[in-house]
Amino acid sequence: MIRAFSRVAVPALLLIGFATEVPAQQKPAASSGQSQKGKAAAPAAQGKPAAGAKPGAKPAPGSASPGGGQATLVQSYADWGVYTTPAGKAKVCYALSQPKARTPSNLKDLPGYMFVATRPAEKVKNEISLIMNFDLKEGVDHQAVMGREQYVLVAKGKNLWVKNPAEEGKVLESMKRANDLVVKGASAKGNATSDRYSLKGFGDALDRVQKECR
Prior knowledge:
The chain is mainly beta. Helices cover 10% and strands 33% of the residues.
């Protein structure tokens, strides 16, 4: 897997128009592993920008849109859904969720997303990213908090990634154990923001991602 900060650069997350609601908006499933196969035009995560990349920069040479086409919702696990793009060289698999709560209150109608994506063609496995949908303050540390555990996030444009790629494995293990994850950040204007994600079903969703994109 690629775990250097200079991974394939795409400075923005690709949004594909919605056809179905993402898991955090769905009604509770009859079981945590209920199959939800079908077309789901969910947002797709893309890779961390290269060091020094500027907002709005073009993708680095050789980078590919991880969406590769419309995503399919494979299965829902509580508050997380597993999506894949069409099979082929650019196939991507990812777990996706939306925050249960956003503050300040003017963010409540603005969608946010958290992804854990695997892109075999780029040798990227379980990359954590978030799309916040508002401009973030860059050059400062943002936080992912789970109980007493805290991890530093880095911002570029409207997106967040784990600042130290070597810590992603630890973050994922913490996510499997915790009930909630709180993203504490700051907007470009310096306003404090907070997103709370449920981690119910995350472990099963991550296992399914790994099976779909071996």
